[in-house]
Amino acid sequence: MDTSTHTVMSLMITGGPVMWPLLILLGIAFVVVLDWLLWLIRWHQGREQPMGVSDYLGLAILDFITTSAPIIGFLGTVTGMISAFASVSQSTSVQLPVVAGGLYEALFTTAFGLIVSLISSLMSFLVEYGIEHTCADIEEM
Hints:
Blueprint: H1 8-15, H2 19-44, H3 57-90, H4 96-140
Helix pairs in contact: 2-3, 2-4, 3-4
């Protein structure tokens, strides 16, 4: 596979079906952070009330994504390896490119799961940091 011509879609196809839930989790993480940033902007403009308990749900969602994305990625790697070894078991002669190609594709999901987890963890840190400073501002009022 030529690594110089990867697009998002080609990476998703290469990684297999487990890549799609990871992409969805990444999208949810971005939506949670965007929602929080919009709330913060409205709050600083005086159009939003201080945060309530339900407003912290976004942090729980980001924490869930942070912990589940690597597990889902590893699941994709395991299912890819099962598929690769199934094709090896059905062939009459084992060739290194067949095995290496399957493992190469399977490892995409682990890498993507770790990337999603890292991004979600960073977003969670930034949101929590912002919440702490916003709460400190509210207490000073």
